[in-house]
Every structure is written in C-alpha cells, then in structure tokens.
Specification:
Blueprint lengths: L1 H23 L6 H34 L5 H35 L5 E11 L2 E10 L4 H15 L6 E7 H10 L1
C-alpha cells in the first residue's frame, strides 16, 4: 500500500512540475523537448517505487526462507545454557566454600578449616575439616547453627571432621 501511495505522489509531483514548465515557458521550439523531458521524469517517477518494491519483496523472501539449521541452533543454545548453568553452580559453590571458611575462622578456637560444599539431589551439603583448640559439642552446635543460619545448610547435611589441636601436637611429637 505504501508503494502505491509513493508512486501516486511521485507521478502527481512530476505532472504538476511539467504543467508549470509548459505554462511558464512560451510556445516555441523548446516545447517538444520539455514534453520529452517531462515524459522521462514521469517514467522515472513510475519505476522508482517499483524498484523499491522489488527490494522489499526480496527482503520478505529472505525472511520467509526456511531455516536450514534451526535444530542445530537450538541444540547449540541448549549446550551453551547447560555450560552456563554448570559454571554458575561451580562459581556459587566456590564462593560458598570461601565464605564458610572465612566466617568460621572468626571463631578464635578454629586454627584451620577446609570446606567442601556440593549438591546432592538439589540439597546443599557440606563437608568440613576443622583443626580446632576446642572440639566440644557446644562449639559443634554453634558451627552447625552458623551454617544453617547463614547458608541454609541443614544440620543433617553437614559432615564435620574435627581434629583437636592437642591431638595434632601429640601426633607431631610421636612422629
């Protein structure tokens, strides 16, 4: 519809300009030349929108062309998503391990700690290896409470290996 409106507009402009030229110029030997030029301009006015229509039709054909690799593109997108999710989970676990270690090291009784978090059937679990001066049940409850409060790791999903510092020193003396 736009093409037709543009064509009519162009033709009207050319005809009006041609009429104005014929009226303004005296009747002379130039009149046939003016009509020839006006006719050529009219032809250009008619053909230029058609040229644009051809370009538009070619563009529409490109859009309607069958997508040859749709399945490959979807497959590649799925692989990218899986990689992204895996990397995001690995980064999340890494950051959580660092945070757990940092928070529990705030306890003066803990000398060293190694935290390993993982997901087991979408349940967050943690394995902790703690070197501590105080390995009492109260301290263990405190550490488990911190894990549950800050990280949402349920007590039953935490495995703690606590090595009392006293035992480490005796092992070094005996070894």
């Amino acid at each position: 519809m736009e093409i037709l409106a543009e064509m009519i507009r162009s033709i009207a402009v050319v005809i009006i300009l041609s009429l104005c030229l014929e009226l303004l110029l005296p009747k002379s030997e130039l009149q046939p030349y003016i009509r020839t030029v006006s006719g050529l301009l009219l032809i250009v006015a008619v053909l230029s929108p058609l040229k644009n229509a051809g370009e538009i039709l070619r563009f529409e054909n490109i859009l309607q062309a069958p997508q040859h690799n749709t399945e490959q593109i979807i497959s590649a997108g799925s692989e990218l998503r899986a990689d992204w999710e895996h990397n995001a989970e690995a980064s999340h676990i890494n950051n959580m391990n660092s945070q757990i270690e940092s928070i529990l090291l705030l306890d003066n009784d803990i000398i060293a700690i190694t935290a390993e978090c993982y997901y087991n059937d979408e349940i967050l679990c943690a394995e902790l290896q703690i070197d501590s001066l105080d390995a009492s049940k109260n301290k263990q409850k405190k550490w488990l409470g911190i894990l549950e409060s800050f990280f949402g790791i349920q007590t039953e999903n935490v495995q703690m290996d606590i090595v009392p510092q006293n035992m480490m020193e005796k092992g070094a003396e005996n070894g």
